[in-house]
Specification:
heterodimer; A: mainly alpha; B: 192 residues; mainly alpha; 2 domains
């Protein structure tokens, strides 16, 4: 795949999202549904790789780009990941004075809610891909519960899930 | 502030490198660690400016944490500080993420490794739903009249976006634009 196109596709996903995993619907649409460059399973693996190490959750974009275009692709993914961040500098000057305007706050909320709906939409097939039986369902529910109701670091959760997967395979 | 503790691009980059690449758990944890270091310990930035950077990073497109680092870097050391902070936070962890992805590829045929990865894939699916809840939770109202109006807005915009994407297969961009427009037109009482 052309590296510039890869960069622009990832930049589009990054620019139209407002959180690390918020770009997932756009990425899935462009890379899995439209262009068939990745499967849902490969996308899942990219998300896992991005979440396993330290750093922001959006790192999965670099792993998606690596899966599509190797090391040069990963570099494009990295650029697409960091480019939108610099918009905050003019934004600090421009919107800083307008952040309290009710209509602006309200529009931002509408945007966040729509993003959440899209995230639900892309989480459904990824969840179905990750579901392999009762054991995986228990792990999913436990992961949701731990992150929602406790302050346990997600790194421990990943480690625990890997250990549980390993233990389960030994007893099969 | 004594000269030894005065900020420089080099020192700032070192801090972002250290905190950003040793902190697991995503944006909020890293932001908390940076606040402790830059506001409480070194006093390079006031808590008011720190809060402004946090708020604006949330409305900046892309990953909030990276925008936050750019904002803090810019406030402390200008554009060079923003570039240094962003690169120090993201470059090493990106390289590590690629290494992990490479490892996953190599281990595809290894039954033991795939069992461990299978566990983490399931955990990540749970994490996605937790992320959705984190986004929605601040917008869910109480069981009052005003709260119910807010909840109706949550259901209509979030549910509408889901249906538009999942059932009618609209692409994300128009859905996001329509959601923003509805939010702009449907001003909540809390925002007045």
């Amino acid at each position: 795949m052309n590296l510039l196109v890869l960069y622009l596709l990832l930049l589009k996903a990054s620019v139209t999202s407002f959180s690390g995993l918020g770009s997932l619907p756009m990425v899935r649409n462009d890379f899995v549904v439209e262009r068939h460059l990745l499967t849902d399973h490969q996308l899942n693996m990219a998300v896992v790789a991005g979440r396993t190490g330290p750093g922001p959750f959006g790192l999965y974009l670099v792993c998606v780009a690596y899966a599509v275009g190797g090391i040069p692709g990963a570099f494009m993914g990295f650029l697409a990941l960091i480019t939108p961040a610099f918009l905050v500098i003019p934004l600090m000057r421009w919107i800083g004075a307008r952040a309290d305007i009710p209509r602006v706050r309200s529009a931002i909320r509408g945007l966040l809610l729509a993003s959440a709906g899209l995230l639900v939409s892309s989480s459904v097939p990824l969840t179905m891909d990750a579901f392999t039986g009762l054991f995986s369902a228990i792990l999913m529910a436990a992961s949701f519960g731990v992150l929602t109701f406790t302050r346990i670091d997600s790194a421990w959760l990943m480690l625990g899930a890997a250990g549980a997967g390993l233990a389960a395979s030994l007893f099969r | 502030m004594n000269p030894q503790s005065s900020p420089s691009v080099k020192k700032l980059t070192e801090i972002f490198f250290r905190v950003g690449n040793t902190t697991f758990g995503g944006g909020y944890v890293t932001i908390g660690m940076l606040g402790r270091e830059l506001v409480d310990t070194r006093r390079w930035i006031s808590s008011e400016k720190f809060d402004l950077a946090f708020a604006l990073a949330r409305v900046t497109p892309g990953t909030n944490l990276i925008a936050f680092c750019a904002a803090i870097g810019a406030l402390i050391c200008g554009v060079a500080g923003a570039i240094g902070a962003v690169l120090a936070l993201t470059a090493p962890s990106s390289a590590l993420a690629v290494l992990i992805a490479y490892g996953f590829e190599r281990w595809q045929g290894n039954r033991v490794a795939m069992a461990a990865i299978g566990g983490t894939v399931a955990a990540v699916a749970g994490m996605m739903w937790a992320t959705i809840w984190v986004i929605l939770k601040p917008h869910v109202g109480r069981m009052t009249m005003r709260g119910m109006t807010r909840n109706l807005q949550v259901v209509l915009i979030t549910g509408g976006a889901f249906v538009a994407s999942r059932i009618f297969e609209f692409t994300p961009l128009p859905i996001i634009l329509v959601g923003t427009l509805i939010g702009f037109l449907w001003k909540d009482a809390k925002d007045s």
